[in-house]
## 1
Amino acid sequence: MNDLSPYGDNPFINALGPIRDRREMSRALLQTPARPPDIANLPYAVRLHWLMQLREMHLPRIEELRLAESLDLATRHSYAQRSPHSPEVWSALMKEPVIQPALNMPAGVVSLVGHSGTGKTEAVTRLLKRYPQIIAHDRLPNFAGKHLQVAWVSVCVPPSGRTVDLAEVLMKAWDRAMLPFHKGEPRFAHTLAQQRRYGPRMLEEWRQIASSHFLGLLHLDEIQNLFKLATLSQRKSRTNGKKGAGHHIDDYWAGLPIVEDQMLKWILSIANEWGMALCISGTPDGLNALRSRFSVSQRISSLGHHRFQPFQVDDAEFVGVFLPALLRHQYVSTPLQMSDELAHLLIELTAGIPRLLVGLWIAAHRIAFERNEDRLRLEDLMAGAKTTLAPVMPAVQALNSGNPQLMERFEDLMPDDFDLWEALGHPL
């Protein structure tokens, strides 16, 4: 235990490992692919397989490091509220579901928004995996025998947005995580085998088990699946005559129905009543919809709202980190050189979406190899955009335009003009 820690001798918190600063976290998250020693003598087919390692490259951005702090604060604080040194905490768990743990304040909520491909899901996944997921305690204060602590669970909200489907996803994720510790059949095998299922009851069953194992943080990704998002024609009719600088979030999301209202209530109770930290992530349309519903429901404590933005051509992280990393991984004898023209072209063809930047880089190499030429040209990037990236180019053009009317054509490219932090009860 670190004598400087504000949490004291809390075994749940100590098991998470030391608190890391941003420099330490950045080093832990950095992942760069190896390069072959002699590119010129490698056949093109072999070079392609080296090139595919770029998909595993991870260069942590400053917003990811801020997110790391928020998740760490939320998780550790949730355990500070549920210390095993408190007999009341154990008493409450043993008397489920009538008595709830006595919390000084709700657990923290972290929200994360970004367009598809900006790396939000990968960031949360990598950060959570910095902690052990299942921690076995041989002894705990006020408890006889061994006990398993579950530090985190991460799932995607199913496309249906129904309670029964979310409960199934949570139960299966729990059983997978606990598989090495199973004695007999998985914990939720009987419930999942039933033909007739009732979603709220399944969610409550899962929550009770998660509480008894002191779940630290629950991550719900693809939060937009909770909502019946409007179609393009519905959005146009609802916002007709209200577009432009003066538009307001309510013009888009007023009356937007959640698939099942009890789902939102249950999610809120995780942090508000049971002390588990919560991380919600999704695309701007989903987070905006959630913001409108939170604004009319109970307020909850938030520990951070993070936006994963596409790169801009003048971003220091793009020109100083990401682009140089791409340039180092050229598998041709005559590579492209750093230039303003190259930087502008890459942003124009990908709207600065990191996943598309890597995809375009790989596509350009394949075009060069098909040309049987051992050099990379700007024209190869343009050809890659017209072929491999052709299906996403309309969305890229909409993002580049910054025009809400064009962006409305794509569900996951809705304008992100509204600050979720205020809706969660903590205006900046």
Note: Residues 137 and 186 are 20 Å apart (CA to CA).
## 2
Amino acid sequence: MKLAVNYSEEAERLVSDSLVEIDLFKCPDFSREWIDHAEKTIPCYIHFGLNAGDRQMDKVNWEKVKELREQSKTPYVNVHAVAFAKDYPNTDIFSTSPSVVNGIVDAVVRDIEIVAEKVGMENVIMENIVCRGQGENTMQAIIDPTIISEIVHQTGCGLLLDTAHAQLTSKCLGYDVKEYISQFPVKQLKELHITGIQADEEGRLRDSMSMTKDDWELARWVMQRIKDGDWQEPWVVSLEYGGVGPKFEWRSDQDVLIEQVPMLCDLVK
């Protein structure tokens, strides 16, 4: 398994100064400048902002996807499995109606098949997102492990497991996070994202934060499942802390990186 960290200027300086050791930077697909910066230090891979389930795949610039993927030698094209409440008007977000569930599954499967036509199904991985419950913008069905497993089974794509997304979902909906994750198609695990979750000033939980005691406990449990052979070993484990742009640059504390990157490295390596 390789170890990656979200690209940030702070992370780049630390790697350049040999204060942290990682294999890769994980870079967003929206800035060639940052990708070029990252690759001057160590290799990077691209995390694509593609959604499967909102019927927008026909608007994707596939030439750009191909170019970025080839430049960085990114092995997989990731998609986020989504079902936005706005696309299912007058429908309870907790609906388990077969017509609603089948509609969600069909929409995600169709979009994944479009991606597969461009890159091959063996190169597509699907990431779990967050569902916070009533009053939010996500249909609960899309985070149901049974439905996630059904989509993976129907398409043959791989799984990108985001533990922070699973933990946020579990805390908001009252699940036991380990039981919840254990129901995912972990035998098809291809990539793993780990980061901390913390409350903002209004008490709303968010991810891409520094790791807390609970986050580390979950990370250790997940890594043990992989090392015991219960789950498939992913090609990369990425610490999704910090980043670039207004949404992430304020939470790119180099002291956090100096402390937590080696801790995750110990778990992964």
Note: The chain has a mean pLDDT of 94.
## 3
Amino acid sequence: MDSITQAALGAAVAGLVAGKKCSPKVLLAGAALGTLPDLDVLVSYGDPVSDMVKHRGFSHSILVLLPFSFLLAWCWQKWRATTFSFNQLWFLVAACLITHPLLDSFTSYGTQLLWPLSVSVAVSSIFIIDPLYTVPLLVVVAASLLWRRKMARLCGIGLAISSLYLLWSVIALNVIEDRVQSQLADTPMAGKPVFITPTPVNTVLWRVVVLDGDTYWEGLTSLLDDEVTIDFIAKERGQWKLEEKPQHLVMLEDFTRQFVKYEQVGDSLTVTDLRLGMVDYLPFQFVFATLEGDGTWSSALPVQLESPNVRPKHLPALWLRLLGNQNIDANLCHAKECSKPSKSDV
């Protein structure tokens, strides 16, 4: 999730744990602790693919954060005066740190909760920015600064509201999963890898991607749709053109669970993460090889391409699609790249 959300979550958690000992300083410390795990973005692993794959790694691991919170609490108590007992202080620090990766694990990116074990958790029920989750936390943190006698209670209310919304996101995801599996059953697409994620800043409109060899199918479905049939659109997924796959490509494929597409753009061979973003706005696109003058491909360290800009003309269409208007799916992709499926496909 974004830094504002994580700071608000950390402050609210600190306020609730502190109880009657809560103060503005406690909220500020909780906000700082809530954003601390994301400081791993300052670590460079030498190339953009490694930076992407190893983000949300060691700094988001419960196996690291638990002992680190113990050390941090010990240092805090040793060098600064506090009214908290060591156990209270340790629990406050640990709660603020660990709720950060737990929340991240509900997004689509992937969070290595048990690093160094190769276990990446991505529930994919909430977008990385969702005001309906964040605003209640911001409101109660601000309100607690005005009504200081009720700080802990207000923080608890905000956490309850946001947690209920997070629970709703999981329920909504299950509804969409059932809808997708029902449509794909008894078709050639049954059993194919499926990726489902909410579209930006909501849990009503969902994006569905199905891998099918050199093709992938993409569709949108809203909880407000009258007709639950998803209008899938076929897009070319492409193939890797070189005989061998570089280690960085294998790393990216494993990280995305093979949800990537390969495309030649001019003299560059690019690989794009299909999970994050939607339609033409896929921000994680990397150049893995370039075409030499003799017609051979030369691979090197991957280079990340600049993210495409959002076209304002698509925003109203996206909003109408969220509200259940199923006549505008084709307006959200380029006609030359898309084709409608036949009944034998889906």
Note: The chain has a mean pLDDT of 89.
## 4
Amino acid sequence: MIVQRRAVTSVLAASALLLAAGCSSGGGDTPGGRSGSSSSTAPEASDSRQADGQPPPATGSVRVVRTVAADLKTPWGLAPLPGGGLLLADRDDGTITRIDDKTGKKTVLGTVPGVSAAGEGGLLGLALSPDHASDHLVYAYLTTDSDNRIVRMLYDPKKPSGEQLGAPDTVFKDIPKGMIHNGGRIAFGPDGMLYAGTGESGDRGLSQDRDSLGGKILRMTPEGEPAPGNPFGNSVVYSYGHRNVQGLAWDGRQRLFASEFGQDTWDELNAIKPGDNYGWPIAEGKSSDPTFHNPIAQWRTDEASPSGIAYAEGSIWMAGLRGERLWRIPLKGTKSSAPPQAFLTDTYGRLRTVVSAGGNKLWLTTSNTDGRGTPSKTDDRILEVEVS
């Protein structure tokens, strides 16, 4: 099985120790505050509807509280900081910007070197180290001239704007790249392991090839090694038969869910079981073939084209690009307990990323400047949304 990794250098480790010792709480990277997003270290666990016998109501609600920030260009990854504030990835420019979630003020941390933005590739998902409050490490999934890869960088808020990112250290590389289907979502699970959703880069055969990293969900240690307990021995492959995974989230019982782009017929939300085959390209959507793990919900591609997902209030919340809406999928265990419900349809345009803002609130980004949308004068935006 394929194992592509690079251990963190001793220089980076030493720098992390020095930075942790020298940084004060003035940078806002202190424990407390935001938690429970698909980019953070653990899901929300305070939902009173966690017991499988108590599913959420069949009908929910969504209220847009406010616009947090506007005039953003090709936003993709979004990671809430432990002490407040958001880190935002610009797909095309390859920059990471800190957004003050109270005032909307933008501070550019720096540009990630090596980003090759073309088609659907560029600087994509962001995730914070499980120990970010002390080690100040930011992980990023990016497209280069040769591959998709995961890097990590030190973030030093005490340095001037534009100089706050350390040199990237490659954690994992050689994920297939293409003009389409680069995947790109990364997240640390409640087990402290790093998960990545990849795409088959337009080469359908990669999805069923367990020796390929394309069309998979990968699970690895923070250093890029195959995680203990992975289903295929010394391999980072966790599940396969995917077309293009851009959403990862855990419910309050630490069960993993993933969204997936279909081709012409069905988009999917899947409950992920390690080692299972999710069917692409042989099956799109639900199948009668017992070889494949069927989705818990499916949509016509013009109603969804899903990217990010988050868990809140007993439901998975799924952002739709082509569908231009936010879907609510109420859960009972690893199944949908009621038909999915759509909100914000054709209101804010294409929706890319959704993460938990704690409790019953979400951060939601639009994606109208990505070359496929029709931007308004204030696009793109980050919205604060209240859900039930």
Note: Residues 6-46 have pLDDT under 50 and may be disordered.
